[in-house]
Amino acid sequence: MFKYIIIASFTLFAKLSIAQLLVARDTITVIENNYVLKMPWTNGVSSSNVSNMDLNYDGKPDVVVYDKVTQFSVGRFRCFINVGAPGQTKYVSDPDLSYRFPFVSNWAVCLDYNCDGKEDLFCSVNGGISVYKNIGNATTGINFVLVKAVINSDFNPSGPPSIGPLYASTIGVPGLADLDGDGDIDILTFSSGGYYVEHHKNMSKEMYGHCDSLVYEEAAACWGKISEQSCTIALNQCSLNIAPNPNVQPIAKRHAGSCLMCIDANNDNLMDLVMGDISCNTVQFAHNTGTVAHAVISDTTMQYPNYPNKNNTLRIKMDNFPCAYYVDCDGDGKKDLVASPNTYGSENVTSMWYYKNTSLTNTVNFQFVKKNFLQDETIDVGQNSFPVVFDYNNDGKKDLLIGTWGYFNSGSLTAKLTLYKNVGLSLSQPTYSLITRDFANLSVQGLNNIMPTVGDIDTDGDIDICVGSSSGQIHWLENLGGVGNYLFHNNSFSITTLSAASAPQLYDINGDNLLDLMVGTKNGRIAYYKNIGTASAPAFTLMTNYFGNIDVKGDINFYGIDGYAVPYFYKSGSNTKLLVGNVHGQIFYYDVPAPASILTNSCTLINATTNNLNEGGQAAVCFEDVNNDGKRDLFVGNGSGGLSFFSSASPFVGLEEVSSIKLNDHVTLFPNPATDHLQLTIDGLEFENGAFVLYDLLGKQLQTETINQNKQTFLLNKITSGVYFAKISINTNSQTYSVTKKIIIN
Q1: How many CA atoms lie within 13 A of 482 on its CB side?
Q2: Is 235 exposed, middle or buried (0-12, 13-18, 19+ CB in 10 A)?
Q3: Which residues in the chain come in under a pLDDT of 70?
Q4: Rounded-to-integer distance, Cα 211 and Cα 266, Å
Q5: Res 3: pLDDT
Q6: What is the DSSP track for 350-366?
C-alpha cells in the first residue's frame, strides 16, 4: 500500500511540476552601508495599516502590516514575527503567512472582537465593514472564516428599528475600540454625508452577556460634538451629542475620508482620537473631556505627538494622509505609535514612523525612534520594484539592478536605478552589497516608472541597459566602456508604446541573432518591436501590439482596464518560455511559438497562477541563474518596492502540497509548539534510513539528525524561540521522499 501511495504521489507531482517553476522561497545575504539586513526579501511596505496579532501563538505580539501596494488600494498582508526580548524591536518576516489571510482591499485592521485572545480581522467592503474570525491554533496556524459579510446597525434604537449597513469609507479607516469599557468592540466612523463622527455601540454584552456578537446600534450621530473638514476639527457642532445641531453649519459640504485611532491618552477612561485626513499632511489629536455616555472634544492640536505631554518629539507630518496606529512594537506590554501614509504616492522608503511609548504609568508618552520601522531591515526601493540581474563590472558574478516608479522626494517620486553588487566569495554563494541608489545618474532625466532590461544591443561586447517609462517611451543607456560609463539616449529608438507604462525586455524572439524589444504595456498586452537594424546599429519597428494574443488584465472591478504586463522571455532547451507579471500580482506562464510562427500563432497558457505566487500587485519577475548551479532562480518585485527571492537550491524545492499530504499520513512530529525537544513517529512505512533537518524562516540550516528508528527524539537545546521548518526525508529501496512541517518553538 505504501508503494502505491508514493508512486501515485510522485506521478502527480511530475505532472504538476511541468506547470510550475522548480524554485522555492530562499534568501541571499544583503548588505547596506556595511550592515547585514536581517530580512531583506520581505516585499516592502509603503502605505500601510499596522496591527498586532500573535501569528505563531507564542504569547508575544507580532506585527501585521496591510500594505496597499498600488494605486488601486488592493493590498497584501506582510507578517513579521517578534523574536526579540521585551523592549526590543527585533523581527523576522514570514512572507508565506500572508497567504493565510483573505483577499481584501482598501484597509484592514486586526483586533480581537470575541474576547478569545486571538486577533480577528476587520476590513473594508463596499463602503462598509466585514469581519473575519481567527479560528487558527498553534497546531494548524492562523486561519480565518468570514463571520460578518457586512456589519449592520440600528439607526433608530429608541423607536421602530431602522437597520442598515454601518457605513465606513473605503478611503479611510474607522475607529475600532471598546469605547464604553464593557469589553466589546465599538465603532466610530464618519457618516456617509461626511463631516460628523457616528458612534455605533456594540450591544453584544448588553444583549447576550459576552463579546461574541457583532450587533450594533447608533449611540451618537455626532460623537464628540465635532465635525471635520479641510484638515480642521470644528468644536461644538451638535447640542446633545446625539444629532447634529441644525443651527451650526458644517465648515464644508462633504468629507472624503479619515483614519480614526482611538486612544485613552491620559488614563481617564475616555477615548481620545488621533485623526488623519486625506489631502492633509498632519494628524490631529482630539482630547475628550466629556463622559463615557457623552463624549465632548474640547481641545485639538496638529502638533501630535507633542500633545498632551509637551515632549518636543518630532510631530507626525507626511506629504499626504498620514494615519496613526496604536500597536506594541517592542513587546514590552505597552502600546506604541506607528504612523504611515494611507495613500499611494506619498512617503515610501521612510513611511513607517515609530514612536516608543516611554510612559511609566497607564498614560502615553510617545518618543520618536525612527522613520523606517521594519523597512530598515529590508530591500526597499520606494514605489514599485523591477529587478534584473547582470554582470555590471565584468567579474563573472551577477549583480542586481532594480528599477522603480520612484523614491519619494520633496512631494514627488524620483525614478532611479538601484544597484547591488555581488560581493560573494564564490559563484555559488552570492552576496549583494548596495553600491548606489542612482546608478548611471538616471534621476536627472526626470523619468517616471523606469523598468530596466539588459543586453548587448550593439554587439560591442559589453552589456547595455534599456529602460521603459510611464510615458511609454524606451530609452537606451549605452555602455561606452568601463564600469558605470553609460550614455543616456533620450528616446533613442523613437518608440512610444500604444498603452503607456512600458516594461521592455531585450530578447531575440525571431532567432536572427539580433535583440528585439518585447514590451509589456499598461493594458495588459505585449508589443513586439523587431530589430531591423544591424549588429552594431540597432533599429526597431513595431510588428504587433498584441503579441501571442496575451492579455493579463486584472479584475475589472478592482483594476478597470489595466493589466501592467511585465514580461520575461527565456530559453528552455530549444524552446522559448514566457513569464508575465500583472497588476494583481499573478505570474502567468506561457509556451511561445517557434520563431517562424510568432506572428501567426498564439502563446499557449501553461499556468495563470505560477507556483501559486502572489507577492503583491504589479508583479515584475526576473528568472536567471544567480548561484551557478545551472538552474534558474526567481526574483519577484511588486508595487511596495521590495523583492522576494525563490531559488532552485532552496531546501523547499519540490515539496508540493499534494505529495506532502500523503506522506503526512505516516509522519507525526510533536509537541507543537515545542520547548526543548521534538518526538518523531513514523507509522506504516518501511524505510532504510532518513534525515531530520531544521531550518529557520529564511531557509538557513540549523540542525541535522539521522533517522534510523520509527520513533525518535530530537533535542532542541540550542534553538531559540521562533517559527521553523522541519524537513523529514525518508529513504526507501528506490526513492527518497520528503515532507516539511512548520514548527513553533517556545
Answers
A1: 5
A2: middle
A3: 1-18, 240-256, 307-312, 654-665, 684, 697-699, 733-735
A4: 26
A5: 30
A6: T-BEEEEE--SSSS--E
